[in-house]
């Protein structure tokens, strides 16, 4: 299938594969694979890329009116994977594949760094271990002595395609965690079997000894099996180190001192001083990993802002690098550039304003230290927002819908407390049909930040029509008074066919037209060309109440009737949407043209049905212990002495209080926090800026330990249950003074 592609690459001197039109590249030297996903279609971006100078496209159909050379295939992803397999066949390298539940990236980086002492080394970028990421990784290799690739699977049948591309000589299995998220497998044994498929043609496999039985059963006799015994108390990092050492021993190398350090694979984005955005990358500091960090930064940079790169000493260069494409200012701290002392003396936070700053430097270095100073808030408390989890949850619900059904992603209330801009940027790239905000101000802020996709303003009252029209925010209209007002204000400004979203009350009894209003409403709409109905919608009151389906069905029936009457009276089509997160899962036959995805986008499952299993946590509120004290039985804790200790206790103080969003009702043993695997009760009344917790049962507790108030280990729903409220309230209560940190792996 891909034979002609490889020939075309050689003839046209093309050396770069492009699958995302937003990535930086030299257009004349790249081939664009138009991939189809559940949320997007790469064919839509071909005209733009052709204008930019891309000459070669791999497609499943040739678009009309576009100049270029096209190679038509049945499946563009399969063609890309076949090309990677062919390219792998041309590489005369020793290839090491790293698979397993966790630690893949760390082991890959350690191996690559250690093998550099024996020859040239290439490795897959960051955590590029998917069906697409592995293919793109393979195509960057150029016949180095050693190649290290990580590979990950989420369901049956995926490893076979990865193995065909990687064709490894050596496989490292980092272990298989029984607690690993794995809805794609029916059992632990099936998961082991799938991951071991990578070794079917390898020379050797290195793995932890607890998998001896699985390896013996599923790996052929031609493969050397190197079983590594693990100390009973070894943590995952120590296990990774032992596996790395054994792999290097097999390859005739060793792990130098200082290589087996902790790696930070996350790219963190947060608000900086002087209206800056700070992207912190503490991954291995070399030219290879810089490329993916720059690609991430370009995607986050709003139009009109400059990009500054602050770069630490590169591991693979003794010279200052050239200013990369798209970077407006480079500050290099290393050989050929500034010394750490010169850097810290020449630059202060006041030298940065209204820009995006990519600070790339390993932990403890001058760049990472300076990046901390650039943070707008230095509060010990942070709300971590996992953008990969947002994408996962979006695609989870995308898979429940028909391909043509659009998703309205709810980012009102500042993205349910997580912060709207980074979420909007992520959802825009995923191909959401709409964003929905609560008020015009929220939409205006997103427009200023560079969000260009359609935005629906679900606002009960518009007061600033200049901002509404200037920012092309599409309002909800729920009454005749509001309709008359928007027609009047639009007419003053010469607006024509402005999109509006008409809301009907079918049973929530909050806001909206009623069914008897249809004739009068359509009559008014027919008399004006100022507005045009873009969509008709309603709210379900009981979709997440499993015992009230009759009421929900009555709402759905009423909504269907209303839409039919509207369609019979208007001379144009409009979209319909009524399903919320619970409705998408429970009433898919009513998905119409669009659905609205809200709380479940943020990883909260409100109904617990099969269709909502597997959501990932998006927001984690955490802080640190700043004080530890031992107190005897009978000691009172906090204001008004509401808690009196019933035993000798160790009490920690954490700088989170009700001014940060920690509900005061969680005090006096009502609330719990997560610390080193132990749920610890909150003692005494919650203070404005602090709370006290009982850490008596936590082993080796120390000042500086991380405390989780909700997140990966303590679901926000458990906190809301303690308060007899809902997760929405807990999420949206986190104070603006708490620093938001956004990250992707």
Descriptive notes:
The protein is an alpha/beta fold. 30% of the residues lie in helices and 22% in strands. The protein is built from 23 helices and 34 strands. Strands 14-13-15-12-11-34-16-25-33 form a nine-stranded mixed β-sheet, sandwiched between helices. Strand 21 (498-504), helix 19 (518-526) and strand 22 form a beta-alpha-beta unit. The radius of gyration is 28 Å and the shape is globular. It starts with a helix and ends with a strand. The model has no long low-confidence stretch (mean pLDDT 91).
| Number of E-type strands | 34
Helix content: 25-40%
Q: Which residues sit in consecutive blocks of at least 5 with pLDDT less than 50?
A: none
Structural class: alpha/beta
Oligomer: single chain
Q: Strand share of the residues? A: 15-25%
Strand order of the largest sheet: 14-13-15-12-11-34-16-25-33
Query: What characterizes the major β-sheet?
Result: 9 strands, mixed
Mean pLDDT: 91
Index terms:
alpha/beta, eight-stranded parallel beta sheet, 23 helices, nine-stranded mixed beta sheet
Brief synopsis:
By secondary structure, the protein is of the alpha/beta class. The protein has 23 helices and 34 strands.
Can you lay out the helices and strands and say which pair or pack?
Elements: H1 3-11, E1 16-18, E2 30-33, H2 46-52, E3 56-59, E4 69-72, H3 76-90, E5 94-99, H4 104-115, E6 121-123, H5 131-138, E7 146-150, H6 158-166, E8 170-173, H7 188-196, E9 204-208, H8 212-218, E10 224-228, H9 236-250, E11 267-271, E12 277-281, H10 287-300, E13 306-312, E14 329-333, H11 340-346, E15 355-360, H12 366-374, E16 382-386, H13 387-398, E17 406-410, H14 412-416, H15 420-430, E18 434-437, H16 440-448, E19 455-457, H17 465-470, E20 473-477, H18 480-492, E21 498-504, H19 518-526, E22 531-538, H20 549-569, E23 575-577, H21 581-586, E24 594-597, E25 619-624, E26 627-631, E27 636-637, E28 643-644, E29 649-654, E30 672-675, E31 678-683, E32 691-694, E33 706-710, H22 716-722, H23 727-732, E34 739-744
Parallel strand pairs: 1-2, 2-3, 3-4, 5-7, 5-8, 6-7, 8-9, 9-10, 12-15, 13-14, 13-15, 16-34, 17-18, 17-24, 18-19, 19-20, 20-21, 21-22, 22-23
Antiparallel strand pairs: 11-12, 11-34, 16-25, 25-33, 26-29, 27-28, 29-32, 30-31, 31-32
